[in-house]
Amino acid sequence: MTAKLHSLDTSAAAPRSPWMDEKDVADWTGFTRAALRSMRYEGRGPAFSKPGNRIRYRLEDVEAWMKTGSSRPRVERRRSA
């Protein structure tokens, strides 16, 4: 699945907090939550943090990703034996 980068809507107000959850990013960027999950799984999309069981995105990372279309480096997953 190839996700098309949406245009950053500069008329939409950026969230006030430097951290956003999945819903905030979906609402702001126009991507669905499912698309964001898929991009995380595939190692694409904006960088994110996972404190506990929650997914959080930094506003500056999402802005940079939307402007450049760059993906974060894929993290290799360990395979269980």
Tags for this entry?
81 residues, mainly alpha, two-stranded antiparallel sheet, 3 helices, globular, Helix-turn-helix domain-containing protein
Structural commentary:
The chain is mostly helical. It has a domain at 19-68. The chain contains three helices and two strands. It has helices at 22-29, 33-42, 59-68; strands at residues 19-20, 57-58. Strands 1-2 form a two-stranded antiparallel sheet. The longest helix is centred in the middle third of the chain and has 10 residues, at 33-42. It starts with 18 loop residues before the first strand and ends in a 13-residue tail after the last helix. Residues 73-81 have low confidence and may be disordered.
What's the multimeric state? single chain
Biggest sheet statistics: 2 strands, antiparallel
Q: Please give the alpha-carbon distance between the first and last residues.
A: 28 Å
Shape: globular
Provide mean pLDDT, rounded.
77
Helix content, binned percent: 25-40%
Biggest sheet strand line-up: 1-2
The Cα radius of gyration reads: 13 Å
**Uncertain residue ranges:** 73-81
Total helical segments: 3
The counted number of beta strands is 2
Strand content: under 5%
Give, in order, the helices and strands. Answer: EHHEH
User: What structural category do the secondary elements indicate?
Assistant: mainly alpha
